[in-house]
Amino acid sequence: MLFSYCKFEFCRLFRLELFREMEGSSRSVGRRRSGYSLRKIIGRGGFAEVKLAVHTLTGVEVAIKIIPRKLAPESAKTVKREINILRLLVHPHIVRLYEVVVTPTEIHLVMELMKNGELYNYVVQHGGRLGEDEARRFFQQIISGVDWCHRNRIVHRDLKLENLLLDRHNNVKITDFGLSNVMRDGRFLKESCGSRDYAAPEIISGTPYAGPEVDVWSCGVILYTLLCGAFPFFGENPTIIDMKIKKGVYKCPSHMSPGAMDLISRILVVDPIARITMPEIRQHPWFQQHLLPSASPLSSSLPPSVNLIDEATVQKVVDLGFKAKTVIESLQASVQNKATVSYFLLLDTDNQAIRTSPQNNLLQMDAVDHPGVYFRAPPAVPQKWILGIQSVPAPSGRMAELLRILQELNVRWKKIGNYNIKCLWLHQISACSEPNTSYTYISSETSAQHSLKFEIQMYKGQEDKYLLDLQKVSGPSLLFLEICFSLAGRLLPQNLASLV
Predict the structure, then answer these.
(1) Which has the higher per-residue pLDDT, 448 or 450?
(2) For this UniProt entry, which segments traverse the membrane (predicted)?
(3) Domain limits of the chain?
(4) CA–CA separation, 292 vs 143, rounded Å?
(5) What CATH topology corresponds to 34-113?
(6) Nearest 5°: CA angle at 108, between 166 and 346?
(7) What is the mean pLDDT of residues 197-218?
(8) 70 is in an annotated binding site
């Protein structure tokens, strides 16, 4: 009888203790879950909360984003996309995702802890605006991270001071990829998302956009805010703000330098085609001043040392009880396990400060623009492919010429935007363009066997040149090749002549 009572009392106390821990007990030990000791809540947002935690093997502090598994289908899709994007984006100025731990009721995203909080709070605490040198340092790091997103075909779409976090050395790292999306050739994004104060005119207007251009605009708003302590577009109500954004109406204060003023004026351009691009921002004279190693442009060739694994960090992992061979093989195979998670936690802790010694700079700078530096060898030959039909003329003139050629080829078209059209070509049919109209509408009554649907989009390339990109939507591939050949022959007859 006494044994039964003791057993009952033990179970009751155990359940009580477990309940206290789940309610967020303030015990220093915290709640242990899958190799981490959970501590206090440090943030909440949407359907998730963020807790401070300690990795039990290494003692490194991390932030764990806790998401319930029972979510609406659309929310679950968003979480899955964010996880996939964070796994892809490994960069010194993007908050690192170390691992994903799934429990019966929750999903835990183990992420890098940013001890100094939001850049927004930093600006407020320093008088509302920053000096140009400090603002430039932050901006260089932001551009470095955003540019890496774009190189990996990711558009963030919610860049703002609140989504820029500072580590213990006040280095900026981009976070919150919940609204981000993957860019696909010939496909445009249509969602109006993000914060109004940072939103590009095309998002405010509800017109389709490719992606990078809206992030560029947001970066311009961030730079203006860092330098001025206020948003470039403000008003008494959202309607006035939207109107100013769509017109690109803003004022630069007198204390702003000509260089900063010029860069902002080239970013906050209403026409996305005329807006400055990421490579152009990185080459701007104001941006180039006091350039940080982590903001340096990507070099055309990489030294053989990019395949090195940090031996000192490997030894630290070995000291934890792992075999060196297992650690190295797991790193080379990009395997996520306890050894590799420990490796990257220790490596990032050592490398948070931007190193300045020549011996360390090589690996640090390579890692900036090549986050997979430890696993992937550099390409044998520099990639200099230019995709699409390249041209020098102004985009409006080129589009007018394109529409004329499409009419000659009996192609029907529908304008989606100023530089984006959907096309339908019915093989061996008579001319179908209506006279004296800017565009013709596509009929749904077509023969699928002899019809081709494709899209044409104009992009701004390097050196003030423009690219026409064609993508097949549906129809026979041979018909698509035929129409591409016909368009190229009329747009670039001299280039085509050299091929036949």
Answers:
(1) 450
(2) none
(3) 34-113, 117-295, 389-427+447-491
(4) 12
(5) Phosphorylase Kinase; domain 1 (3.30.200)
(6) 50
(7) 92
(8) yes
The model carries a pTM of 0.66
215 is catalytic: no
Answer yes or no: are the C-beta atoms of 426 and 410 closer than 8 Å.
yes
pLDDT-wise least confident of 242-246, 344-348, 495-499: 495-499
CB pairs under 8 A, 24+ apart, for 309-313? 309/374, 310/347, 310/363, 310/374, 312/350, 313/343, 313/346, 313/347, 313/350
- pLDDT for 273-307, tens place per residue? 889 999 999 999 999 998 888 777 653 333 333 34
For 20, the 3-state DSSP assignment is: helix
Q: Which superfamily, per CATH, for 389-427+447-491?
A: Kinase associated domain 1, KA1 (3.30.310.80)
Q: Do domains 34-113 and 117-295 have the same CATH topology?
A: no
Which of the following is catalytic: 133, 147, 158, 242?
158
Across-strand partners of 99?
Answer: 110
| DSSP secondary structure letters along 459-485 | EE-STT-EEEEEEEEES-HHHHHHHHH
End-to-end CA distance of the chain: 99
Which amino acid, residue 32? Answer: R
Vertex 64, ends 63 and 68: CA angle to 5°? 155
Q: What is the CATH number of domain 117-295?
A: 1.10.510.10
Q: Which stretch of 158-167, 271-280, 456-465 has the lowest confidence by average pLDDT? A: 456-465
Q: Provide the pLDDT confidence category of residue 119 given band limits of 50, 70 and 90.
A: very high
Amino acid at 295: A
DSSP conformation class of 24? T
